[in-house]
């Protein structure tokens, strides 16, 4: 068992199905640059990213159990309780505020991801680490997504054709559909 | 106004008080880690954690490391797998930052996850919540 709760490289982070890791060289950037990026994120980027999610990732949001009302909340740039935005490549390192580096995550999974990753970075200026890389722009833990879909009255369907391969995978890749 | 009142007004989800709260806090202080201020103790007495907007405040019960049995609001100095130094308690998370109480300067603060360096601080929990625009 990995000391830091990772499976073998390329496999999912333990407890976070669907989030594989990639080998990554972490090299801490200057505090000034980090603070500048963080401020830009807080002051505007995160709101723009929520609007982008509502406009461009509606299917992903619906598959993760977000209601139409919550998607409208994102469209207005506001947050939905229990979810926040994760920088895949950390702002401490080479990460930027580009939308390609941002993922909406449920708070539990986000916390779990950082509890796994952060100890590898503490007191380090440079380190090779297995970086968790959630696919797409929305990651909601399957059990949480299932609860949310149930609450919306949606059904859980795993579409598996006779050849055993998923015939029609939803945007989350988790087999949830209306 | 208490932090709980403030969070209720902000429509936060508040969790039931933990039956092990006092045990955890006593243990925390016995370890000499940090003495939590009265307003945070009052918060824990009324609500064992809260979820709001893009953040959450931990409680006690869900916060005990199952391996070490050390409360996760307390991290031992010098242990890189623990997330804070002595006199600092991690109280929660906001966006990608940590919400901490730094006993050395008696201040609540938002801090970087990796180096725990505080970048915004306030004298009380409510003041910090306001700073976060909760």
TrEMBL record, chain A:
InterPro entries in alphabetical order: His-Me_finger_sf, HNH_nuc, T6SS_Hcp1_domain
Record-linked CDD domains: HNHc
Signal sequence extent: none
Lineage: superkingdom: Bacteria
Protein name, UniProt field: HNH endonuclease
Organism: Telmatospirillum siberiense
Classification lineage: Bacteria, Pseudomonadati, Pseudomonadota, Alphaproteobacteria, Rhodospirillales
From TrEMBL, chain B:
SUPFAM superfamilies, A to Z: SMI1/KNR4-like
Recorded superkingdom: Bacteria
Protein name per Swiss-Prot or TrEMBL: Knr4/Smi1-like domain-containing protein
Provenance organism: Telmatospirillum siberiense
């Amino acid at each position: 068992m990995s000391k830091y709760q990772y499976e073998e490289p390329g496999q999912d982070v333990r407890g976070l199905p669907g989030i594989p890791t990639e080998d990554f060289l972490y090299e801490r950037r200057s505090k000034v640059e980090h603070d500048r990026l963080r401020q830009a994120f807080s002051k505007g980027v995160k709101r723009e990213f929520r609007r982008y999610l509502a406009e461009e990732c509606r299917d992903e949001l619906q598959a993760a159990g977000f209601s139409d009302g919550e998607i409208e909340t994102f469209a207005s740039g506001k947050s939905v309780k229990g979810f926040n935005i994760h920088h895949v490549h950390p702002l401490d390192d080479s990460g930027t505020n580009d939308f390609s580096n941002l993922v909406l995550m449920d708070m539990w999974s986000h916390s779990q991801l950082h509890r796994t990753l952060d100890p590898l970075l503490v007191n380090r200026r440079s380190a090779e680490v297995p970086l968790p890389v959630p696919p797409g722009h929305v990651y909601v833990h399957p059990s949480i997504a299932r609860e949310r879909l149930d609450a919306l009255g949606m059904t859980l369907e795993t579409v598996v054709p006779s050849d055993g391969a998923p015939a029609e995978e939803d945007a989350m890749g988790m087999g949830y559909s209306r | 106004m208490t932090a709980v009142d403030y969070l209720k007004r902000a429509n936060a989800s508040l969790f039931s008080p933990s039956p092990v709260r006092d045990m955890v806090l006593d243990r925390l202080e016995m370890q000499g880690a940090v003495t939590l201020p009265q307003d945070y103790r009052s918060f824990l007495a009324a609500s064992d954690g809260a979820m709001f907007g893009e953040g959450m405040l931990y409680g006690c019960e869900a916060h005990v490391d199952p391996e070490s049995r050390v409360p996760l609001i307390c991290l031992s100095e010098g242990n890189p797998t623990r997330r804070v130094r002595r006199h600092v308690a991690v109280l929660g998370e906001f966006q990608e930052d940590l919400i901490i109480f730094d006993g050395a300067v008696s201040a609540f603060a938002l801090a970087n996850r990796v180096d725990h360096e505080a970048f915004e601080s306030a004298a009380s929990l409510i003041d910090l919540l306001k700073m976060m625009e909760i």
